Structures are given as C-alpha cells and as structure tokens.
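User: Fold this; tokens only.

Assistant: Input:
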Amino acid sequence: MNPLNPHTLTPPKALVTLVAGALFGFGLSLATMVQPDVVLSFLRFQDWGLMLVMGGAAGLALLAYKGFPRALRRPLLGGQFLTQPANWNRETVIGSAIFGVGWGLSGVCPGPAIAALGTGNTDIMWALGGIVLGGLAHGLTALD
C-alpha cells in the first residue's frame, strides 16, 4: 500500500470519512433538507432558511477547496491536494438538466435522500430507485 496514494483507505481516513458522513447526514436532517416538501418550497423561493443553509454550505466548500491547499502543504491524513478541471460538454449540460428536472419534480437530491433513510422516511425509496436507475443508465451509455 502506497501511503501517498490519495485513494488508499487507511483506518484514520476511514474514521474521518465515517464521522464526516454522519455529520453531513445529521446536518441535512437538522436543516430539514431530507423532507421533499421543504426542498420544493426552497426551489420555489418560498423557504429562505434553506437558501441560507445552501449558501453557507457552498461558502464553506469554497473555503475548503481553495483555502486548504494554500494554508497546508499537504492534506492532514497524507496524499496530495488534487484539482479537477471542469469539462463542459453536451453530456454535462444534458445530465445537469435531467438532474435539475428530477430534483424539481421530486424535491429529492441524492445526499439528502440517503440521509432521509436514517429518519425512517421509507417513501424516499422511490426517489432512490430513480437515482440508481439514472446512474445505471449513465454507466451503460458512458461505455460507448
């Protein structure tokens, strides 16, 4: 195992990933993003509280992605900071549009959908089924 490989899963990385995922799910639940009705009211610009949550999350993500590489020589758990240039093409635009339409019709985003399972919302399984089918369709078409 190469400790400099950013994809090598070590026990500390696994623990941090588990804690971060649990914190993310708790935050989504606390912000009520796991409730499709609340998300739909956000998308109709009726729920400004959720807009603040999304803005705060986007701001923190920007600070993390741009600030950490400047403040630290390397990530705390090893490896290196990676960059991913955005490639805008026809497939990206079509996929984004499909995602947006699905989000707007159902009020369900993939991350909050998984977190919603932890709240006992089993109706969300329909949306998760659609997410899985969409991912499968993408995987099958990306092979061409």
